[in-house]
Design brief:
The protein is an alpha+beta fold and 98 residues long. The protein has 3 helices and 5 strands; from the N terminus they run αβααββββ. It has one domain: Arc Repressor Mutant, subunit A. The protein binds zinc ion (ZN).
Length: 98
C-alpha cells in the first residue's frame, strides 16, 4: 500500500463509530504501530480542507484516573504525571465535524 492508500484506509477506520486506537489501526492495516502517528498527523492537517477534524480521546491513567486532557501529541504518554504509574489507557482517534 502506498501512503495515500494507507491514509484513506485510516480515515475510513476513524470515521466509524467510536473511532480507533493505534493498535487497532496497526492490526487492521498490517503496518507497524510506530508508523501510525506520522500518518495521523498528516491526516489531521489534511482534514481541515474537508471541514473535518481529528478528535483525540485523551489517554487516561488506569491507576489514579488522571486524564491527559492538555496533551496535544498524538503518541501515547509513558507515565502518569499525577501518580507516576505506567498503567495507561491509550488515546483513541476519531473523525468529527470541525
Ligand atoms: Zn495516575
Amino acid at each position: 500500500m502506498d501512503a495515500k492508500t494507507i491514509r484513506q484506509e485510516m480515515i475510513d477506520l476513524l470515521a466509524e463509530g467510536e473511532g480507533a486506537g493505534a493498535r487497532e489501526i496497526s492490526r487492521a492495516l498490517g503496518i507497524p504501530e510506530r508508523e501510525i502517528y506520522g500518518h495521523l498527523e498528516h491526516i489531521a492537517r489534511s482534514l481541515k480542507a474537508r471541514g473535518l477534524r481529528l478528535e483525540l480521546q485523551p489517554a487516561r491513567c488506569l491507576d489514579c484516573g488522571f486524564v491527559f486532557r492538555k496533551r496535544r501529541k498524538l503518541t501515547p504518554p509513558g507515565h502518569c504525571p499525577s501518580c507516576r504509574g505506567s498503567h495507561l489507557q491509550r488515546p483513541r482517534y476519531r473523525l468529527a465535524a470541525a
